[in-house]
Amino acid sequence: MRSPWARAGLYLLCLLPLLIFRPLTPDNELKYLAIADEALRDGHLWCHYLDGAIYADKPPLYLWIVMGCRVLLGGHCAAVLELFSLLPALGILLLFGRWCQRYGGLSGRWIPRAEWAMWATAYFLGAAVVVRMDMLMTLFITLAFYTFWKILAEDGRPADRWLFGLYVFAAVFTKGPVGFLMPFVCLLVYAALTRSWRAFGQVWGWRTWLLLALLCCAWWFFAWREGGTAYLQELLGRQTFGRAVNAFHHKQPFYYYLYTLWYAAAPSVFVSAWVVIRTLCDRQRRNAINPLTRFFLIVFAVFFVMMSAFSAKLQIYLLPGFGFLTYAAFMLLAGRDAEHVKPESC
Question: How many domains does the chain have?
């Protein structure tokens, strides 16, 4: 099946029974529904509470989606809410496929295989069918990186410099500081390693900082006006710096992801890791890695180290990096396959 849209429709059809019949988990999914109900009942838009206690763990965007579905449908519909995870997952696969085919030389026959590997990634499949905001944030982060690459390849539009800032804010407004830190830190390290300062300056220029300043200040102002100083301190202090430095929840040692990655991204991670390690150990193949594959590997490595440095850790927090590792591995596999093509068959 060559059409990416046809494949997306097939994936949606295959997962539809799971969306309809799967029970919601009480610790996370039902909690989000309860927070939305409480916000609608008490008339809170910017500040959220759970049984009367401040709940500033998550930004408003995803909870607004839950609230909006509740108002439009007259009640909570799990299958509809799960679409806000599944549709972003399909969008991520379509985006990576187009990205790698256009700039990485990944042939059409390899793209479905990379998609299947992503669906075989435990926490990618799991995050695609739950009522949770991680997949939506991952879509915005991936869009930000794709926008940077288009600008680096001198294939971008003037509007992309504004869109980059909007994608970063949307990621922050969906899940929190990782939506800002991942594009900033990964692109900063990549620019330092490859001397791509011009492209870095274009995406992290005055437009992005202006958008982030205006939109974040508006968000914090309305949160302060609705919830007062206590809510704002919880949002910006305990939930932001507290989780990064000395987490009160999900606190784990720095090596936590070194062993959890293997089952969080299983089974595809074993193939991806083997292909990447074999390539990096071979000097000739290492030197022949194409620029996009190198970019993907740098992004994943920097993101992995950054997340390991934070105090709060969960396996699903690595979700934004899975696509970069998997598609980098498949571009390396496609490159090896091309080495064995006979000249007369080309």
Answer: 1
175-228 pLDDT tens trace: 999 999 999 999 999 999 999 999 999 999 999 999 999 999 999 999 999 999
| Helix boundaries (H) for the chain | 4-21, 29-42, 60-73, 78-103, 111-119, 122-128, 134-152, 160-174, 178-194, 197-203, 206-233, 243-245, 256-264, 268-281, 283-287, 291-309, 319-339
Instruction: Residue 209: give the domain boundaries.
Output: 4-334
Contact 129, 80 (CB under 8 A): no
- Amino acid occupying residue 311: S
247-271: pLDDT as tens digits: 445 678 899 999 999 999 999 999 9
Q: Is 242 left (phi over 0), alpha (psi -120 to 50) or beta?
A: alpha
The answer to whether the CB of 319 falls within 8 A of the CB of 135 is yes
Do 300 and 323 touch, CB atoms closer than 8 A?
Answer: no
Residue 59, phi then psi, degrees to nearest 5:
-65, 170
Q: How far is CA 204 from CA 144, 193, 242, 322, in A?
A: 11, 17, 26, 24
Mean pLDDT, rounded, of the chain? 91
Q: Could you give the 3-state DSSP secondary structure of residue 310?
A: coil
Q: Establish if 318 belongs to a structural domain.
A: yes
